[in-house]
Structure formats: structure tokens, C-alpha cells
Amino acid sequence: MAILDFEAQCSNSDKLTVQVKVNKYSFILKEIIEFPVVIVDVENRKILENKFHYYIKPEVYPTLFPFCKELTGINQEQVDQGILLKDALLKLDQFLREQVESFIMLIIINSGTF
Predict the structure, then answer these.
(1) CA 113 to CA 106: how far, in whole Å?
(2) Strands 2-4 and 7-8, bridge-based pairing
(3) How far is 30 from 8, CA to CA, in rounded Å?
(4) Which string of DSSP letters, residue by residue, matches 35-102?
(5) What are the residue ranges spanned by the domains of the chain?
(6) What pairs with residue 29 in β-bridges?
(7) CATH architecture of residue range(s) 2-109
(8) For residues 22 and 57, what is the distance between their CA atoms, to the nearest angstrom?
(9) 114 residues of the chain, pLDDT tens digit each
């Protein structure tokens, strides 16, 4: 089981969303700024040692709002030195392939509206 705990760019006064169009479909998304994943071996009830963690450079709202920094504890330098979301997704694919090659099924769990 993979457990994700995203953090997203946020503000206490504005609703920050990113509209994405894919073919004829339109999606409203939050802009991820932290992308951590841990793998849990459910059978043995253990969190595996190798963890996946990257800060993500926000592209639509590149400067973190003060409220976001206070709420998440993430600072501007961390996201400025982060990677793009598309690169994090490629790295996540490789990470999952390396970590779960012996598993029969992978379940991804996230809390929130991502």
C-alpha cells in the first residue's frame, strides 16, 4: 500500500486552483508543493525504509503565500529548489516499480480533495 500526503499551495483569502484541459475534459486541481509517499507492507504491518519525498516547484503560483508557509511549515527555498510535478511523477513511477516488484497488488491512499 502506498500512502501519499500531499501539501498544496494555499491561501486563507483566495481559493487557489489550477484549471487543466485534457482533450474535451476540464479539471480543477490544487497545485502540489510537497509530494511524499511511504510504502506499507500490510502483511507484515511495517513501513518500508525507503521513502519517496520531493518538494515541487509551483508553476502557477510560484511564490508561497504566508498562510501556506505557516500552515505547512514549507518555506520558499524548499520549493524553489524542488522539481517539477511531471518529473516527480516519473520518479514516483520508478520508485514504485523498485519498491513493490514483489507485491501482487498496489493500493494508493490519499486524504483530501486532490
Answers:
(1) 21
(2) unpaired
(3) 6
(4) EEEEEEETTTTEE-S--EEEEB--SSS-SPPHHHHHHH---HHHHHTSB-HHHHHHHHHHHHHHHSTT
(5) 2-109
(6) 18
(7) 2-Layer Sandwich (3.30)
(8) 22
(9) 888 888 988 888 766 666 666 677 766 567 899 999 998 888 899 998 889 999 999 998 899 999 999 999 999 999 999 999 999 999 998 998 887 766 666 666 666 655
